[in-house]
Design a protein that fits this description.
This protein has about 110 residues and is mainly alpha-helical. The chain contains 3 helices and 2 strands, in the order ααββα. Helix 1 crosses helix 2.
């Protein structure tokens, strides 16, 4: 998830798009990372422009497929779930087996 102040949108969008186009042309260089062209091109744009940034706490972009790998006690209840297409047959977010994460998933699934 990205939160970008309006004052940076035009310049960031222009440079980000330029890097994305370059990376698409040369995607073979990214090897296993071709699915992350947006993230890589964003990072290059931020570096070129020297824009400030802060990493959001894990709770604001919690990767549910990694729930069992993230040490318990290092995060609070997730607020934004990044579930990477991990849905069940009913279109609900799959549970992880981690109680704190599953409570957030249960709440989100009520709205699906």
């Amino acid at each position: 998830m990205l939160l970008v102040p309006r004052k940076y949108m035009n310049q960031l969008g222009t440079v980000w798009s330029r890097y994305a186009a370059i990376l698409v042309e040369h995607r073979h260089l990214l090897r296993d990372w071709t699915n992350h062209i947006d993230q890589v091109s964003w990072a290059f744009a931020m570096l070129e422009l020297g824009l400030p940034f802060e990493e959001l706490p894990l709770e604001y972009n919690f990767p549910t497929p990694l729930a069992k790998k993230i040490p318990r006690g290092t995060y609070r209840r997730p607020l934004v779930l990044h579930y990477h297409r991990k849905l069940d047959k009913k279109g609900k977010i799959r549970r992880t087996g981690v109680r704190l994460v599953d409570s957030a998933i249960q709440e989100a699934n009520q709205y699906l």
